[in-house]
Automatic annotation (TrEMBL):
GO molecular function: histone deacetylase activity, NAD-dependent; NAD+ binding; zinc ion binding
InterPro entries: DHS-like_NAD/FAD-binding_dom (IPR029035), NAD-dep_sirtuin_deacylases (IPR050134), Sirtuin (IPR003000), Sirtuin_cat_small_dom_sf (IPR026591), Sirtuin_class_U (IPR028628), Ssirtuin_cat_dom (IPR026590)
Binding, nicotinamide: F34, I104, D105
Name of the protein: NAD-dependent protein deacetylase
PROSITE patterns given in the database record: SIRTUIN (PS50305)
Role description: NAD-dependent protein deacetylase which modulates the activities of several enzymes which are inactive in their acetylated form.
Superkingdom classification of source: Bacteria
Top enzyme category: transferase
Species classification: Bacteria, Bacillati, Bacillota, Negativicutes, Acetonemataceae
Residues noted as binding Zn(2+) in the record, renumbered to the chain: C128, C131, C149, C151
Active site: H120 (proton acceptor)
Family: Belongs to the sirtuin family. Class U subfamily.
Length: 239
């Protein structure tokens, strides 16, 4: 039995599937990841990307932060791929209970998924740091220089920057979904960014599926290990 058939058999018998995904879920939609050979971190900039995406850089170099953010993290033309579409379909049939994502692109919601826990926030949401007024992604794109609210405050993306903490409420929800899952699919993530990567340690079942192009530190824990693109793999499974 090939890997896709094994995955199909594993998923067919479950109605409590939880999906935990990273940047590799969206690369097939044209959004670059961070740590692959051609990823964001392999490119040369005036400062390292992790510095330019830090809270302190946002505060001290706001103009440069936004120039980098708008050029590298926004992809308004990106569309959901097979992975996003499959997961939304499986949620509608009651099989997938939650999608937990490290991505900030909003593609799971665009595909129709309803229960999406965004560990690192979303580029689709932006708030004035002074009056908390909401602004969408297009406002940031259209802004010249630093996006500014009508009240004069700086508009900040609702994304978790380096040096900022994750939302503990969302982390607790993610932990609960994973702890109670029958099947946990971990896909498209290098599992090196903590605390998010540590979430898989809460899984108590024996159907841990790991789908990734490159090896990860958790490969030895997987009950089913599939090396490949997430969209292609999920696209071969029909439930």
């Amino acid at each position: 039995m090939d890997q896709a058939a094994k995955l199909q058999a594993m998923l067919a018998g479950s109605d409590n599937i939880v999906f935990f995904g990273g940047a590799g879920v969206s690369t097939e939609s044209g959004i670059p990841d961070f740590r692959s050979v051609d990823g964001l971190y392999s490119q040369q900039y005036a400062y390292p990307p992790e510095v330019m995406l830090s809270h302190s850089f946002y505060v001290s170099h706001t103009d440069e932060f936004y120039a980098f953010y708008k050029a590298k993290l926004l992809a308004p033309g990106a569309k959901p791929n097979k992975a996003h579409i499959r997961l939304a379909e499986w949620e509608r049939t009651g099989k997938v209970k939650a999608v937990i994502t490290q991505n900030i692109d909003g593609l799971h919601q665009a595909a129709g998924s309803k229960t999406v826990l965004e560990l690192h926030g979303s580029v689709k949401r932006n708030y004035c740091s002074r009056c908390k007024a909401f602004y969408d992604e297009q406002f940031i794109i259209r802004a010249s220089g630093v996006p500014t609210c009508s009240c004069g405050g700086t508009v900040k993306p609702d994304v978790v920057l380096y040096e900022e903490g994750l939302d503990m409420g969302i982390m607790q929800q993610a932990t609960a979904f994973i702890a109670n899952a029958d099947v946990l699919i971990v896909a498209g993530t290098s599992l090196v960014v903590y605390p998010a990567a540590g979430l898989i340690d809460y899984y108590r079942g024996n159907k841990l599926v790991l789908i990734n192009r490159a090896p990860t530190s958790a490969d030895g824990k997987a009950d089913l290990l599939i090396q490949g693109s997430v969209g292609e793999v999920l696209g071969m499974v029909s439930l």
